[in-house]
Amino acid sequence: MFRKLLFFFLFLPLLLIPINFNNISDFEKRLLVGFNLSNFSSFFNDHFPYREELISSYIFINHSIGVSVHPNLFIGDDGLLFLKSQDNITDKQRNIIFLNDSKQENIKKNLELIYDYAEKEGISIYFAAIPDQQTVHYKKLPIWHTKLNNQDKFNVMQKIFKEIGHENNFIDLRKPLIKFNKQNSPTYYLYESHWTNYGSMIASKKILNHLNMIDKNMYLFKKMSFVWPDLYLRENLLHVDISNLEIHNKQLLYEDMNEKYFRYNTKKAIGNDNLLIYGDSFTSENRNFPFYMINNFSSVSRVSSNHQTLSHSLIKIFEPSIVLICIAERNFFEEALFNSIKNNLIN
């Protein structure tokens, strides 16, 4: 009798598979393996009963006790996930890399040449350092991951810009992103290193205010649940849309092997305030950052700093009057960034 019960429970999952068959996993956001006798093991792995519930429970239990199932992530306070090791990114985020006097002097010289170029071309160039997730969620970091030196690179950069007479051209986004980072409306994801749609809006409002511009957007706020398929984790976010977004037309100006770059012209364009955003993944369209700017300028364009260099030829294509350079903190505070921009604008 015992053997019969044992075999019944062992083979019960096979009997339930047809009842629980799905083509797509809503939780993992992927196509599941179809039925195939020659590859039955893969089919079974994707369709055994209560698969998602069991896997998510396993990950949740590990997450709750502070054990990350992802080798490249570690868990901070309240279950927040942070990068553990990825090249030297972690060193930058932990503030281990130090901007010594020599590096600061090189940045200063490059900036002076960049602003000489900007004056000749009749454009305004602003730099906005985007805080890393660790900077915004700094209270959630465990003791072993705290900063190993006390150099505040945001203040160092502000000092450099002041010394060359361009203090107003550096925008520090830290304070508003930390101030408005609440449990019910996080400015940064809990389980990923980018800012949320809401955080992107907070940053754009800070930039507009810095430029002495009145934000013309009318915002729609709604709660939404976001799933991280690779982590089997879900978080509740505040999503922001623009109810009065007016785009007269959308022009393709340039493209590379990775992206297409457009100019968005506003319907009621006044003046010649054409904005070019040069930034990394934080400024991409799927995070709404360029769209938050459109109502406030004659035209808005965005070029990826991950795939393109900010060159003189690129300036000629997009013809901006204002250039906004938005780079994540871990890559912003490096003399290589300013040296590259200087070389490609001038040479």
Overall 3D form: globular
Low-confidence stretches: 16-20
**Beta-strand percentage range:** 15-25%
What order do the strands of the largest sheet run in, or round the barrel if closed? 6-5-13-11-12-10-9
| Most strands sheet | 7 strands, mixed
> What is the helix fraction of residues, given as a range?
25-40%
Structural class: alpha/beta
Report the count of strand segments.
13
Give the radius of gyration: 24 Å
SSE pattern? HEEHHEEHHEHHEHHEEEEEHEHEHH
- Chain-averaged pLDDT: 81
User: Count of helical segments?
Assistant: 13
What distance lies between the first and last C-alpha atoms, to the nearest angstrom? Answer: 85 Å
Total of domains: 2
What does this structure look like?
A seven-stranded mixed β-sheet has the order 6-5-13-11-12-10-9, with helices on both faces. It has 13 helices and 13 strands. Mean pLDDT is 81; it is low at 16-20. A hairpin with a 5-residue loop joins strand 3 (73-75) and strand 4. The chain is an alpha/beta fold and 347 residues long. Helix 5 packs across helix 7 (153-163).
List the defining traits of the structure above.
single chain, alpha/beta, 2 domains, two-stranded antiparallel ribbon, 347 residues
Write a concise synopsis of the structure shown.
The chain is α/β, with parallel strands linked by helices.
Strand-helix topology:
Elements lengths: L1 H15 L7 E2 L4 E2 L8 H8 L3 H14 L8 E3 L5 E3 L5 H5 L7 H21 L2 E7 L2 H4 L16 H11 L6 E3 L1 H6 L17 H14 L8 E10 L4 E10 L4 E9 L4 E7 L7 E6 L9 H6 L4 E6 L7 H7 L3 E7 H4 L2 H12 L1
Parallel strand pairs: 5-6, 5-13, 11-12, 11-13
Antiparallel strand pairs: 1-2, 3-4, 7-8, 9-10, 10-12
Helix pairs in contact: 5-7, 5-13
